[in-house]
Amino acid sequence: MKILPTRAASVSRQGLCTALLVASLTAAVGVSPPHHTADADEPTPGPDNPQSLPHGTPNLTLPDLRPHSPGGLPGTPGAGGDKPDGSTGIPATALDAYKKAEAQARTELPDCHIPWQLIAGIGKVESEHGTIYGTHLLPDGTTDKPILGPALTGREFALVRDTDGGFWDGDTQYDHAVGPMQFIPSTWKHIGADGNGGYKNPNNIYDAALGTARYLCAGGRDMNKPGDLDKAILSYNPSRAYVKSVVAWMRAYQNGDVAALPDPSGSPSAPRFPGGNTPSSPSAPSSPSTPGTSRPSPQHSQKPSAPSTPGKPKPSEPSKPSKPSEPTKPTPPAPTAAQLERVGAAQWSATVGETFTERARVRALTDGGKPVAGAHVRFEILAPAKAHFDGKDAVFATATTGPDGTAIAPVVIANDQTGQFFVRATVEGRDITPIDFSATVKPMPVQSVVLVGDKPPMPAPSGTFGAIQVRTLAKDKTPLAGVTGMTATVLAADEKTPRAIGPYFKKDGKAVRTITLGPTDEKGSVTLPELFADANPGPYTLRIATADGQELIIHLTVKAS
After folding, report:
1. Sheet strand arrangement including 406-408
2. Using CB atoms within 10 A as the burial measure, which of 33, 53, 90, 523 is most buried?
3. Tens digits of residue pLDDT in 421-480
């Protein structure tokens, strides 16, 4: 594990809190010899428990541990107790997720006694509660863009080859830690949780927080026992410095009422680290006014009036009564979206590398069915390996509804991975039922089927034809891997009539003359099952047919004995 210097930590504050930190950690995790690997009895959600391997650079900055009054958090001392200094506050959505995870764990894992403050400590160190590098949490708890750790190539961090086909991290070669709690995809597959009534999404703070609780509690651990607490955190990251930082933040959160900070906006900014916030510069004091020297501002200064000319006084005109102002009518509240309806096709299909002709369209409506303009609709591709939105290579997009309440997502482009996926539409800030669009990425159509190698030999009756291999090709002669649904059928010499006699395959010990072939390999090839000759000599044909209508005819001959 390569531990980088702590971020934004001042030397003076570290020196100030050293003694208190040692005491806090001793009470929290017990006195145990330093070690850098998880124990052998750690939970293993996946092969070799990749979650416990070094998978990124956490923020190991420690909280300010200066003494503070009961009921307050570490921060700036003041009358009436300490107040949160910003670093010890938690964005409201994340704080709600941590507390709900604790409540659900209390039901699912009553013997674990996991506090929400421990989950928050992990979230703080891993991703600044889902706000690192300008990322922010949407009202449903999902990050506005994925938080991905580095590729685990075995160079700077552990070697973890791809386990999810790039589903969560978009990388089909190596895994990355994903989401605000930085889960390895294979770990998420085993302990992933749904914390808010949607689907198991590591990019959602509610799901990730509950998953963290399940992971830390695995193996029957009890967080009231210092030894179990120590092992649980080490299973997340095998670093003693990591344990100290997580526990220090847990204790800071436990020592007072944590402020629920406003959720950060989506404007790009550097992450907020404790001690690293630049204080705002005090405004310059205004110059004191000198008695008797003040001058009227230009807009209020007046020229002295000219002396009046003696003469007959001019009678003043009576003032006209002012027109009474009309009462201001209250502005009715803007309608809010209460439901979404699908506009257009619910099922799409496209070939790998091509653009889907359909687009995700939804209409936002009130409870009464009236269109809602100005609603922010979020579109998400739920299988990043299979497709992306045009122009951004992204799986998230937002659109604002127009006067008719309709929002349209960008066009979707199919990647190289075939299969089904979904595009989901939700309204930001509203807890309403989402709309899903089902999409399928189809393999490229087979343009031709060719025989690999020489023509099959001519066996004698009861002999065999040897290995027969065929290859599928695209229009540009590129081999097509993964082609399924091909059949091989024995026919008469006229290439049309099925035969009840002649060459045959074996299936379940019986002779058959039509068989379905397995998928083609990476070279576009498939080898047929062994083909036998019966006691009837003569000419025959073997037809290889694809699901999209391409055929290959192979001429066979059984020699007379």
Report:
1. 339-343, 361-365, 406-408
2. 90
3. 999 999 987 878 899 999 999 888 899 999 999 999 999 999 999 999 999 999 889 899
Mean pLDDT of 134-157: 88
Start-to-end CA distance of the chain, whole Å, equals: 73
Q: What is the pLDDT of residue 309?
A: 43
Residues in CB range of 451: below 8 A, 6 or more apart: 468, 469, 470, 552, 554
Residue 22, burial from CB neighbour count under 10 angstroms (0-12, 13-18, 19+): exposed
Q: Is 148 exposed, middle or buried (0-12, 13-18, 19+ CB in 10 A)?
A: middle
Find the helix or strand (DSSP H, E) in which 491 lies: strand 487-491
Please say whether the beta carbons of 172 and 163 come within 8 A: no
What is the band of 98 on the pLDDT scale with cuts at 50, 70, 90?
very high
Tokens of 415: 């990647």
Report strand pairing: 387-389 vs 361-365: unpaired
Those residues with Cβ within 8 angstroms of residue 15's Cβ, 6 or more apart along the chain or in another chain:
none
Question: Residues with Cβ < 8 Å from 272, sequence gap 6 or more?
Answer: 86, 87, 128, 131
H helix intervals, 41-148: 92-108, 116-127
- Token representation of residue 246: 């997580």
- Name, in order, each residue with C-beta under 8 angstroms of 131's C-beta and a sequence gap of 6 or more: 91, 137, 264, 271, 272
Q: Work out the angle between the directed axes of helices 240-254 and 11-29 (0-180°, nearest 10).
A: 90
